[in-house]
Each structure stands twice: as C-alpha cells, then as structure tokens.
Specification:
There is one protein chain. The protein has 2 domains: 65 residues, Ribosomal Protein L9, domain 1 (3-Layer(aba) Sandwich), CATH 3.40.5; 76 residues, Ribosomal protein L9, C-terminal domain (Ribosomal Protein L9, domain 2, Roll), CATH 3.10.430.100. The strands form 3 sheets. It has a 4-stranded mixed β-sheet with strand order 4-9-8-6. A 3-stranded antiparallel β-sheet has the order 2-1-3, covered by helices on one side. Strands 5-7 form a two-stranded antiparallel sheet. The longest helix is centred in the N-terminal third of the chain and has 34 residues. It is α+β, with helices and mostly antiparallel strands.
Length: 193
C-alpha cells in the first residue's frame, strides 16, 4: 500500500516521502495515528502545495542536526561504575544511562538513537558512541568508563593464613573410664522404678 508520510519516521522515511508499506502496517499503525495518508490524487495535490514548506523544514532540521553534532562531539561523558580488580564492571553502561547523562548536560536525545558497541559496556575503558541525529548525520561521543570502589566496601586486606589445630592423640576407648551419671539422671532413674 502506498502512503505519503506526514512526519519523519525513523527507519521508514521523512515527511513528504511516498513509501510502499505493508497493508497491516498502514491500516493498523500509520493511518490511525495520522503519521501518513493514503497515496491518492487529492493527497498528492495537497502534498505539492506543501512541498516548499516541507523542504524548508527539512533544511532547518539538517542545519540543527549539524549544530547539535558539533556540540555533542565536543562533549565527553564520564561514568564511575563499581568494578572489580580486573576492570570488569559490576553491572553495565547502556544507551539508557548515556541518554540520562546527556539529558543532565542539556541534550534531548532519544535512547534508541544512541548506538553503543556491542549494545552494553561491561569493562573499564574509553569508548566511542554514535548518536544518530537527522538523515545521515551522526555524532561520535567520547565515553570514559572508570572503575569506582564499591559503596560500603572496605579496602581489601590480606587474608590471615589459616593455622591447623594440632590433632589429639587417639587414646584407646577401653582405657577411658565410663562417665558417672549426673545427679539428674540418677533421680530420673529412681523415679522410673
């Protein structure tokens, strides 16, 4: 089914594009949410009237993306995450954490636009993270993951060497006299009689 997009849809196209999509995708998602309209003569005529405004908006989005890319590439994000002695993190750094950190710095970036190598970072180091902006614009952010001490954990002290207890010499069982019954046991035995 051919449709005309009313908005930019990631993975499909930009506003004003004519796309051929599956019938169910158009009927159940694009058309009810007014993200697209059917490809008809009337809708094509409306699109031609809007064409200049759409092109102006696209050009403005490209300029904004270029400016955002320059600002993002100047940023450096640092994470202090609890890690072991070997540099392996207790947990991971993913696109949600990166998006939250960017938001603290004043950037509104959706987490699905952030591409982390291998989807998560699980060890200490310096990484390059791609952020998809608009069209083919991408920004590359430097991400530094540092190991931090675990909260509430004391510095590791050297373990004390274990000492062996001396073994008692095994005495023959016959040499030991039988224990005398305690007072309580004797009274219980007398009562039972």
């Amino acid at each position: 089914m051919k449709v005309i997009l009313n908005q930019d849809i990631m993975g499909l196209g930009e506003e004003g594009d004519i796309k051929d999509v599956a019938n169910g995708y158009a009927r159940n998602f694009l058309l009810p949410k007014k993200l697209a309209v059917l490809h008809t003569r009337e809708n094509l005529a409306v699109l031609e009237h809007k064409r200049v405004a759409i092109e102006n908006r696209k050009e403005q989005k490209r300029k904004d993306a270029q400016g955002l890319r320059e600002r993002l590439e100047a940023e450096e994000i640092k994470f202090a995450v609890p890690a072991g002695d070997n540099g392996k993190l207790f947990g991971s750094v993913n696109n949600t954490l990166v998006a939250a950190e960017l938001e603290k710095k004043g950037f509104q970036i959706e987490k699905k636009r952030i591409e982390i190598p291998e989807h998560t970072i699980r060890s200490v180091g310096i990484y390059k993270v791609k952020v998809k902006l608009y069209d083919k614009e991408e920004a590359v952010i430097k991400l530094i993951v540092e190991g931090a001490a675990q909260p509430g954990a004391a510095p590791a002290a050297e373990p004390k060497p274990r000492q062996r207890r001396p073994r008692a010499a095994a005495a023959p069982a016959a040499a030991e006299p039988a224990p005398e019954p305690s007072e309580r046991q004797t009274t219980q035995n007398e009562e039972a009689k």
